[in-house]
Design a protein that fits this description.
The complex is a heterodimer of chains A (520) and B (345).
Chain A lengths: L5 H21 L17 E4 L2 E3 L1 H19 L6 E6 L4 H15 L8 E9 L9 H8 L6 E5 L12 E4 L39 H17 L3 H23 L3 E3 L4 H13 L6 H5 L2 E2 L7 E3 L7 H10 L20 H15 L3 H10 L27 H18 L2 H4 L2 H6 L38 H6 L4 H6 L3 H8 L9 H20 L8
Parallel strand pairs in A: 3-4, 3-7, 4-5, 7-9
Antiparallel strand pairs in A: 1-2, 5-6, 8-9
Helix pairs in contact in A: 2-9, 3-9, 7-10, 7-11
Chain B lengths: L14 E2 L6 E2 L1 H18 L8 E5 L4 H16 L5 E8 L6 H15 L3 E5 H5 L3 H8 L4 H20 L3 E3 L4 H14 L2 H6 L4 E2 L7 E2 L7 H11 L14 H16 L3 H11 L12 E2 L6 E2 L5 H10 L10 H10 L21
Helix pairs in contact in B: 1-9, 2-9, 7-10, 7-11, 12-13
The chains are: A alpha/beta (520), B alpha/beta (345).
EC number (chain B): 2.7.7.-
Subcellular location (chain B): Cytoplasm
Main location (chain B): cytoplasm
Chain lengths: 520, 345
């Protein structure tokens, strides 16, 4: 209720001060000196009072990156690390930091053996300049891998990643950095991709099939928000799978503080409160012991990253995505980005405050199972008084009407117990689901195995899960994405496999339930 | 040609529910709205038979509809509650005096007794006086802090078992966003609780927690309920306005955003290591406080000593200043429940 909080006033004062400093720096009275070394002229204003010369800024920036990695105490000496590389400014800066760090010769050498992994998203983002990203990746003197987004649609055992072979104009003689034969001088040109013998990728025909499936999935996503979240999810799944396949335990992502703040808030807006911790954590452990996903830029803002890129001449390709140039109304992510960046302009503490809110949260405790799509704990058990139950109840009430609905006989548990309450009701009004795809939703109705007793597991394997079966295995946030999907026939294999496996297990349990001692 | 009501009752629909998108007729909407509130009440086990419950009434749409629905449901489902309207008169000319008239009409229409407590009786200051002292910038801090305590004092005086407030789903979602923006982890954690109440304070609950603001307006509109709708004349509401605009944008993109955010808020888990303030009692007025001296007493001390900014700022510094200047008590009395007079409106 309080309109102007104390914090806001501090922000306002900070802004005035910043303007004052800026005016001072631009005045004719001579250059303002760097606040840190007090000898070199300052070239940039980071925050209020933080004016730096180039060298001090670069040193502080690098230090922040190194300390974020070091503080984690998660690294093993000279371990291979895979850097997700999109060619955008943040991942280019990360690639630079990692490759420079690893090629240092003194005691400060970053003890990692980096390689880059780029994702070819041209199946859904035709504007992506894959060649240019490859060329940039080739300039870092480290091995470069490429994975096509459509490969993630295939069975979880299939190979997804290939080595990109950069034909170099000149041979490098350096022996630092990469451990394998491939080393590129900074100005390498003309990269061709050649599959190495080590990896057997699905053949062209199969890839084309998967590409078509991905594109169908893409066009079935009825909203910008669903597309944005699907792409994000498929990409991270692909990155994880590629790392596992290459036998690399460390995957580095270039998420900045700014980006994490936006994704925390848009996650909350998308019903992913239970996963807010994982969205901003330094280490993402959703893939278990074999893969550690780290975000070493998480304490650096996008402004700092851009300044670093500018002052260190880091090359990058302006990022393109499905939401590039899209208005704020295009998706929840875009609206949130606009909101956070807008606030940040007036209240410079916004991004770091939101980001730090995320760090004060923790992972939600032990849940029975994980979401089949995002692999984070299911948050749909609700309870008698929860948003999920309330939504379900509204749906029930709205469609039954006073005459057919007898509240007194049901009591409050009706919606919670009866309908299992783990699944959100279908989106009403836009007719995107439910009505146009008649399915065997009523479980136990004796139809094709939606939980009915008569169905053997062999049948369930080959069959695609129904929308209803799928939803049961998804977290709240992913269910919202599915609600926006016109149809769910083209879900990636890792999801359908998971759903089928769980359904089989559940059926098995049902069969033996009477004989299980602890459950009866 | 109007569409038919979704429930199949045969009547023409007159509205599309913002919450579910279903087209309903007037009667079915009223029924659905009330049944949902009843469901929230029973699912969260908000009341026990025989309880004496104060409805915090401002005269605005939320509390007017709340009073109406509480009375309806209490009769229909036989909750066995005794209801009373409790209003706080902040002393804002041209705003609260008008809205209190609405509450008085509600009292007569619904036959629920009304109690009005004023800032002037409780603290010796009206908001009009406070604004003269502190200006427009921080006056909401005073009003918010004082009102929270005033409601509790009023409730204690009446001897009620709990207070129900008209906070709706939109308010709660907005508060979640605000607390994230402020980094206020303690409030973020408790702001989605449907019922709050710790040792020493009277429980408060929000029966409209899952009710969309738009549906409350629709209900009031079609029931022709009498309510007061004017923004407070002293509230510029700058920062909260951003959060509100953001929510509106989200809702336009995905209609369920409000409830999705509440779900998020309900499923957040706070890190154990994150330090949360412990609740104690104020050494001056015995009201619950996380500091040695509660915010209301510090604010009041500042007002009485002619240094209104005393209570504004970081709480650690505020406490320090309050201790330093404690001796120089001003001419007006401190919060003293003995001086409170309850005007039965």
């Amino acid at each position: 209720m309080c309109s102007i909080e104390e914090g806001d006033l501090a922000d306002l004062r900070a802004r005035e001060e910043a303007q004052h400093l800026k005016a001072q720096a631009l005045s004719d009275t001579g250059p303002t000196l760097c606040q840190k070394c007090r000898s070199a002229p300052a070239v940039l204003l980071l925050r209020v009072n933080d004016i730096y010369c180039r060298d001090c800024f670069v040193a502080a920036f690098t230090h922040k990156f190194r300390s974020t990695l070091g503080k984690s105490r998660l690294l093993r000496p000279d371990e291979p690390a895979l850097v997700a590389f999109s060619g955008g400014v943040a991942s280019s800066v990360l690639a630079r930091l990692v490759s420079d760090g690893a090629s240092q010769t003194d005691s400060k050498r970053l003890r990692l053996r980096p390689s880059l992994l780029m994702v070819d998203e041209s199946a859904v983002v035709p504007e992506q300049d894959v060649k240019e990203v490859e060329r940039l990746a080739g300039t870092y003197r480290v091995p470069v891998y490429r994975a096509k987004l459509e490969a993630v649609m295939g069975a979880s055992g299939a190979h997804v990643v290939e080595r990109v072979n950069c034909k170099l104009k000149e041979e490098s003689t350096g022996d630092d950095g990469g451990t394998e034969s491939l080393q590129a001088p900074p100005e390498a040109a003309s990269c061709d991709s050649v599959s190495s013998e080590a990896t057997v990728l699905p053949d062209e025909a199969r890839l084309a099939e998967l590409r078509a499936q991905l594109q169908q999935l893409w066009s079935a996503a009825g909203s910008g928000t669903a597309r944005e979240q699907l792409l994000e999810r498929l990409r991270s799944e692909l990155l994880a799978r590629a790392a596992l396949q290459l036998g690399i335990r460390l995957l580095l992502l270039a998420d900045t503080e700014t980006r994490l703040a936006v994704s925390l808030l848009s996650g909350l807006a998308g019903g992913r409160g239970a996963h807010a911790h994982q969205q901003t954590a330094l280490a993402d452990r959703r893939h278990g012991e074999r893969l550690l996903v780290l975000r070493p830029l998480r304490e650096l803002s996008s402004k700092q990253v851009a300044l670093f890129a500018h002052h260190c001449r880091v090359q990058y390709v302006p990022g393109v995505g499905p939401d590039t140039m899209a208005p704020a109304s295009a998706s929840i992510g875009r609206a949130t980005e606009e909101f956070v960046l807008g606030l940040q302009a007036s209240f410079p503490a916004t991004v770091s405050t939101v980001y730090r809110t995320g760090t004060k949260l923790s992972a939600v405790g032990a849940m029975t199972e994980d979401c089949a799509l995002c692999r984070l704990p299911l948050d749909t058990s609700g309870g008698a008084a929860s948003a999920l139950q309330a939504t379900r109840f509204s749906q029930m009430v709205s469609s039954s009407g006073p005459d057919r609905f007898q509240y007194d006989h049901h009591s409050a548990d009706t919606a919670a117990g009866d309908a299992r309450a783990t699944v959100l009701p279908p989106a009403a009004g836009n007719g995107s689901c439910g009505t146009d795809t008649p399915r065997c939703v009523e479980s136990g109705g004796g139809c094709c195995g939606g939980g009915g007793e008569g169905c053997g597991s062999a049948q369930t394997v080959s069959r695609k899960p129904s929308r209803e079966e799928l939803l049961e295995r998804l977290c709240y946030g992913c269910q919202l994405v599915m609600k926006d999907m016109k149809e769910v026939d083209n879900m990636p294999s890792f999801v359908t496999e998971e759903v089928a496996a769980r359904t089989r297990r559940e059926n098995m349990r049902k069969e033996i339930q009477d004989f299980l001692i602890e459950d009866s | 040609m109007a569409p038919k009501c979704k429930t199949g009752c045969g009547k023409n629909a007159i509205l599309k529910r913002p919450k579910t998108g279903d087209a309903l007729c007037r009667e079915c909407f009223f029924w659905a709205f009330e049944t949902e509130v009843h469901n929230t009440v029973t699912a969260a086990r908000l009341f026990r038979r025989g309880q004496y419950v104060a409805v915090a009434a401002s005269g605005g749409k939320d509390s007017t509809v709340l009073a109406h629905v509480m009375k309806e449901l209490n009769q229909r489902y036989d909750y066995g509650l005794r209801l009373v309207l409790l209003s706080i008169d902040e002393g804002i000319t041209g705003y609260r005096d008008d809205s209190l008239e609405t509450v008085k009409r509600n009292r007569d229409q619904y036959g629920i007794p009304l109690t009005v407590l004023s800032y002037e009786d409780l603290y010796g200051w009206t908001m009009d006086d406070i604004v003269k002292q502190v200006g427009l910038r921080n006056n909401c801090t005073f009003c918010g802090v004082f009102r929270r305590q005033a409601l509790d004092r009023g409730a204690a005086q009446l001897g009620v078992d709990q207070i129900v407030t008209g906070h709706n789903a939109d308010d709660i979602a907005e508060t979640v966003v605000m607390n994230v923006l402020r980094g206020d982890i303690a409030r973020l954690q408790r702001c989605t609780a449907i019922s709050t109440g710790t040792e020493g304070s009277i429980p408060r609950s929000k029966p409209f927690k899952y009710t969309y603001e738009k549906e409350i307006v629709m209900y009031a509109y079609f029931k022709k309920l009498d309510y007061f709708s004017t923004e407070c004349i002293y509230s510029p509401n700058a920062y909260r306005g951003y959060a509100r605009a953001y929510l509106k944008d989200l809702e336009a993109i995905r209609a369920t955003s409000i409830i999705d955010i509440i779900h998020s808020g309900e499923s957040l888990a706070v890190r154990d290591a994150a330090r949360l303030p412990t609740q104690g009692t104020c050494s001056r007025c015995q009201y619950i406080s996380s500091q040695p001296v509660c915010k209301a007493c510090v604010l009041l001390q500042g007002l009485n000593q002619g240094r209104p900014r005393l209570g504004i700022g970081k709480s650690s510094k505020v406490q320090e200043r309050a201790r330093e200047t404690e001796g120089e008590s001003g001419d007006r009395s401190e919060v003293d429940s003995a001086t409170v007079t309850v005007g039965a409106g």
